[in-house]
Amino acid sequence: xxxxxDFPIGLLPKGVTGYELDRDTGNFKAYFNGTCSFSxxxxxxxxxxxxxxxxxxxxxxxxxxxVSVKVLFFWIxxxxxxxxxDELQFSVGIASADFSIDNFEESPQxxxxxxxxxxxxxxxxxxxxxxxxxxxxxSTMSPKETLLWLSLFLLVSFxxxxxxxxxxxxxxxxxxxxxxxxxILPKGALGYELDNSxxxxxxxxNGTCSFSIDSYKLKYKxxxxxxxxxxxxxxxxxxxxxxxxxxxxxxxxxRDDDKLEFSVGIASADFPVSNFxxxxxxxxxxxCVNGKGRxxxxxxxxxxx
Length: 305
Hints:
The protein has two domains: 3-153, Roll (at5g01610, DUF538 DOMAIN); 171-303, at5g01610, DUF538 DOMAIN (Roll), CATH 2.30.240. The chain is mainly β. It has helices spanning 143-153, 171-177; strands spanning 16-21, 27-32, 36-40, 44-57, 60-71, 74-77, 80-84, 87-91, 96-100, 134-135, 189-194, 200-205, 209-213, 216-229, 232-243, 246-249, 252-256, 259-263, 267-272, 300-303. It starts with 15 loop residues before the first strand and ends with a strand. The strands form two sheets. Strands 1, 2, 3, 4, 5, 6, 7, 8, 9 and 10 form a ten-stranded antiparallel β-sheet that branches. It is 6% helix and 43% strand. It holds the Pfam family DUF538.
């Protein structure tokens, strides 16, 4: 069925027990004898549910449900696959990655993936032999790396913005008025605007502000906008987190008791409020004095897809 629509068989693992296809609409279902999962390079894990659904047309598979990748502690759904010549584009919603179709000539096997015969079979190219792999958002990684963590991972960031105010209060005091800690905004805000009736706000920094914390990099634009209410900042624009080679926009922050939940749309991460009791400094973050970074505690990572 996949080959009839110009897709390679390696998009699905071995062991499909049956399928249904409406050739008029392209709606399909593929069935496995239970959940199918396997690891690649001992770092990433793919999971296929017992039933996979989507809409299939020539060179395009959309509305995909039932296929997830795990990186770090959370699962992210792959939602679309498009063939463009000799490349396949995989999308997790907010980002996509292109890979040579040659990487999908064979199907992996549930449980052991491509390592069933020997540690690494020829079906899985090494990093040095991968074909034409390009991540649309930046740099180059192996298909396994990008496809599996892509998305998301992004998500493993911790900083976010918010601000608003009265002319009498600083932007940091306004954050506290809305029950947020000052540390979700870096030091050095020049000013802000706040519509108290709608919660719409704009915060101004003296240029772009970026800094690293542990293995992640945060970037605040010179103007940050959003909507703030008690314990919630939504429609956030102007703050991004970089994980590996991918920049992701933080779009929402919610306070739930002693935790802050940061969302990048397809996934969210919870952190203790205590991580944000002080504001980082542009350029050096929390490492300005003695170069010793402050560790950020992570409570939980979840996919919202």
